[in-house]
Amino acid sequence: IPQDTGSGLQPVVGDTVFINYIASYLSLMIFDTNVEEVAMQNNLWNPSVLYEPLKFIVGDKTVIAGIDEGVQYMKEGGSALLVIPSDLAYQDYQTLLFYIELVEVRPGS
Fold it and tell me: What's the rounded Cα separation, in Å, for the pair 109 and 102?
């Protein structure tokens, strides 16, 4: 899995970020993605889904805590594999892997 530190802005709480992601269990079974090609390859494709970068505001708790925290260590243009323990994910005793590409950072006001 390619990883790149990126060279753009590093997001902080209040910034809007756009990410691409591939989510899997430790078994490497992919269960969610916003990358259309990956969705098709893993029988997850849904015609009603818009396959575009996920947009959220850092710190607003609309994504799992592990992603919210993890993107703050990244820079725009970078990618990383986040190992997210259950307590920072879905609280179901499963550690998750999220491959994240930080596509864009828009500074907050």
Answer: 20
Amino acid letter, residue 78: G
Q: What is the CA radius of gyration of the chain?
A: 14
What tokens does 63 get?
């994504």
Taken in order 45, 48, 54, 57, the sign of the CA dihedral is negative
User: For residue 90, what are the contacts with CB-CB under 8 A and spacing of at least 6?
Assistant: 64, 96
pLDDT, tens digit, 9 for 90 and up, residues 47-90: 999 999 999 999 999 999 999 999 999 999 999 999 999 999 99
Residue 47 vs residues 23, 35, 50, 51: alpha-carbon distances, Å: 19, 13, 8, 9
- The pTM of the full predicted model, rounded to 2 decimals, is 0.93
